[in-house]
Design a protein that fits this description.
3-stranded antiparallel beta sheet; 14 helices; 361 residues; 3-stranded mixed beta sheet; single chain; 41% helix; binds iron/sulfur cluster; alpha+beta; globular
Length: 361
């Protein structure tokens, strides 16, 4: 039977260094994790890698060092700082959560998984992770890494998602009362560095002796997964207009829906059949030969990009002009930044007289 003490001893030697983490040695010396940092990192880490999150975490905590600072931030500033991390509903919930913690809890995160799970944007996984890591509660934290480790330790061949309940129960049975926060992080680290999806390094694993999949030789094939459905393709149009003074025509997307509240280029609906073009104003729109492509969780997006030089007195039906010196491409969500990258090369080619006029104005 795997023992938590074995993985904790391994964690004491090999814990990964992360800006939001208190090392096992510091923890023993009495240092407590900052719940704000733990919460922020956990929300950022949902479906994103540690490497991708470090820079964002650093910028957020520099700009908003406490949950009260974040709660007082302008929505647009937070959305812009989040740009590129994806899943923008999360950024909106991040703000809602910060404001709820300030309004209902005086700026201190509640310390139980149940109360944490009532806060906006905190699901059962994140609630358990914060309760364990920030408050050392024996909450069972089950993410993809933990599911993989459990499936292998106990040679569970039932495919995911059917196996979720069984894997959660196995994880619960292993969660110790002693150092549950370090234990949760230890299993995460094991899954990320040793018990990896393709080539588990069983030879150096602290749980190699009790691991049933290692003994059976099934580890690289676990966990099994039911085949995923292919993602549909949605298509649409994006309009990148540059006014004579260099200002860009942008539009803030509605709060609800995909990329809600984010800055973007005016355009059409995104749908599986060709949508109406829905141009923001009549102009000499020229379609670029290349499409902007981006993959979201549930579909692939292909956007036809149209560019136009707009007169200084242009009156678009929607959107607003952002002066050239105020426009930061990094504030755009990734799909919109890809549109801009293509458009920019289109304008450069147009300046050089090489863009074909497709007459779609
Ligand atoms: S022995 Fe191998 S398969 Fe088993 S938990 Fe360790 S790394 Fe994973």
């Amino acid at each position: 039977m795997p023992q938590s003490k074995d993985i904790l001893a391994w964690y004491d030697r090999h814990a990964r260094d992360m800006p939001w983490r208190v090392s096992p040695a510091d923890r023993r010396a009495g240092k407590r994790p900052d719940p704000y940092a733990v919460w922020l990192s956990e929300v950022m880490l949902q479906q994103t890698t540690v490497a991708a999150v470090r820079g964002y975490f650093h910028r957020f905590t520099l700009r908003w060092p406490t949950v009260s600072d974040l709660a007082a931030a302008e929505d647009t500033q937070v959305m812009a700082e989040w740009a590129g991390l994806g899943y923008y509903a999360r950024a909106r919930n991040l703000l809602k959560c910060a404001r709820t913690v300030v309004a209902d809890y005086g700026g201190r995160f509640p310390d139980s998984a149940d109360k944490l799970a009532d806060l906006p944007g905190i699901g059962p996984y994140t609630a358990a992770a914060i309760a364990a890591i920030a408050f050392d509660r024996p909450a069972t934290v089950v993410d993809g890494n933990v599911e993989r480790v459990m499936a292998r330790l106990f040679d569970v061949v039932t495919p995911l998602p059917t196996a979720k309940r069984e894997l959660t129960q196995l994880a619960e049975a292993l969660t110790p009362q002693d150092r549950p926060g370090d234990y949760a992080q230890a299993v995460m680290d094991l899954g990320a560095t040793i018990c990896t999806p393709r080539n588990p390094a069983c030879g150096i694993c602290p749980w190699r002796a009790p691991c049933q999949a290692r003994a059976a030789g099934t580890a690289p094939d676990l966990p099994r997964k039911l085949p995923k459905k292919a993602k549909p393709v949605r298509v649409g149009y994006a309009y990148v207009g540059r006014r004579a003074d260099g200002a860009w025509l942008l539009e803030r997307r509605p709060d609800s829906g995909l990329l809600g509240g984010m800055l973007g280029w005016p355009g059409s609906e995104w749908s599986e059949v060709q949508p109406d073009r829905n141009q923001p104003l009549p102009a000499d729109w020229q379609m670029l030969g290349e499409e902007a492509r981006h993959t979201f969780t549930h579909f692939h997006l292909r956007l036809k990009v149209l560019i136009a030089e707009l007169p200084i007195d242009a009156k678009p039906d929607r959107g607003h002009f952002v002066p050239r010196h105020e426009f930061r491409p990094a504030d755009l969500p990734t799909a919109m930044r890809k549109v801009f990258d293509l458009a920019r090369s289109g304008f450069a080619a147009e300046d050089a007289g090489t863009v074909e006029d497709t007459g779609h104005g």
